[in-house]
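Exam revision sheet. Question 4 asks you to relate a sequence to its structure. Input first:
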Amino acid sequence: MVKILLAEDEEVLRMLVMDTLEDEGYDIDEAQDGLEAYRLIEENEYDLVIVDHMMPGMTGLEVIEKVRKLPGRQETKVMMLTAKSQQSDRDCANEIGVDYFISKPFSPLELVKIIGGIVK
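Answer key, structure tokens:
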């Protein structure tokens, strides 16, 4: 089974994405902030990490920067969901190793399609 971590501080959005992905058969862990996300990534292996850019405790960018330094986590696929969608934001995310960038608002069906292509 495909294991995904969803790190999103907005509860309504987190529940929407979790419900959508669980309906598709994915095993989902959730984090409400950057610190919790990083702790879960240290303790577990994920096929995909979906992270919000702006979160309390540690931003999504900070989480991914630290994850990329963990042994065995350099190849973990990372998707960033964010309202920050300017090209400079995308460039910064790409520089630290974000594989996929989705701007909010987004379609849950589009998200499912993209994830299906990532974790095949």
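Marking note for examiners. Strands lie at 3-7, 27-31, 48-52, 77-82, 100-103.
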